[in-house]
Design a protein that fits this description.
Rossmann fold; Arc Repressor Mutant, subunit A; 2 domains; 5-stranded parallel β-sheet; 3-stranded antiparallel β-sheet; 10 helices
C-alpha cells in the first residue's frame, strides 16, 4: 500500500483529494496538512511514500518546503499540484526531484492518471533485484515514458507528436495559434498539448508583451528534447 500525505492550503480541497486518494487502488491517505510547518512535521513523523504538494501555502512556497524536507531527511516522493505554470517553477520542481507536476484546475481522472503512473514506477523500484543497466536507467528516469503512455486522457499521441515536431522544426518561439495552424487543430487544443509538454519538461514557455491586452504565451522545445 502506497501511503500519501496531502498538502494544500485549502482544507476543503485537501479533504477532497484525500478522500479521492483512498478510492484509488493501492493508495491510502494518512494525513492532511494545510501549511508548510504542519506538512514538515507530519512528513517527518508519518514518513509517507508520496506527498501531494500544493505550492501556494500560507507560510512558505511549496518548493522551498520541499527543499526543507530533503534537508530534514524526508525521502517521500512528491507530486506537485499547483496553478503555477511558469517554466522556472516547473524546472525547479524537476531539479528538486518531483515525480510529477499536475496543473490546477484538473479533474479527478487527471489525478488518478498521475497516481497510476506513480504506482507503476513505485512497483518497479520495489523489485528485490535490478535486472540490468536498462532497468537502472528506468528507475533513475533516464528513459521517459513514451508519449502514448504519458498523455492525459483525451489527448492523441499522433497530434502530440505533430505538436512536438512543429516546435523542433522551428527555430523561433511559437504561439498556440501558430502550432494549431501547422497541425490543423483548434488553438485551445494546441495550447492544452503545449501546456502538457511544459509540465513534462519537453517544452518551455515565455511571455511576449504587446502594446495592449494580456501577454501572449510563446513556446519552444526544451533543451535536451530536440532529438526525435
Amino acid at each position: 500500500m502506497i501511503t500519501v500525505l496531502v498538502v494544500d492550503d485549502d482544507f476543503r480541497v485537501a479533504r477532497i483529494h484525500s478522500a479521492f486518494v483512498d478510492r484509488v487502488e493501492g493508495f491510502r491517505a494518512i494525513g492532511v496538512a494545510g501549511n508548510g510547518a504542519e506538512a514538515l512535521e507530519m512528513a517527518s513523523r508519518l514518513v509517507p511514500d508520496l506527498i501531494l504538494l500544493d505550492l501556494y501555502l500560507p507560510d512558505v512556497f511549496g518548493l522551498d518546503l520541499l527543499n526543507q524536507m530533503r534537508v530534514a531527511g524526508v525521502e517521500g516522493d512528491v507530486i506537485v499540484i499547483s496553478a503555477a505554470n511558469e517554466s522556472e517553477t516547473v524546472e525547479r520542481a524537476l531539479k528538486l526531484g518531483a515525480a510529477n507536476y499536475l496543473l490546477k484546475p484538473f479533474t479527478l481522472d487527471d489525478l488518478a492518471g498521475r497516481l497510476s503512473e506513480y504506482r507503476s514506477q513505485h512497483q518497479r523500484r520495489l523489485r528485490p533485484l535490478v535486472g540490468d543497466q536498462a532497468e537502472i536507467d528506468r528507475i533513475f528516469g533516464r528513459f521517459e515514458l513514451t508519449i502514448a503512455e504519458s498523455l492525459p486522457k483525451g489527448m492523441s499521441p499522433e497530434t502530440a507528436e505533430l505538436i512536438l515536431a512543429t516546435l523542433r522544426e522551428r527555430s523561433e518561439e511559437q504561439s498556440a495559434q501558430q502550432c494549431a495552424a501547422a497541425v490543423g487543430i483548434s488553438r485551445v487544443s494546441a495550447r492544452r498539448y503545449l501546456e502538457f509538454f511544459v509540465s513534462q519538461g519537453k517544452a518551455q514557455v515565455s511571455l511576449r508583451y504587446g502594446s495592449r491586452g494580456r501577454p501572449e504565451r510563446r513556446y519552444r522545445i526544451a533543451a535536451g528534447s530536440d532529438s526525435k
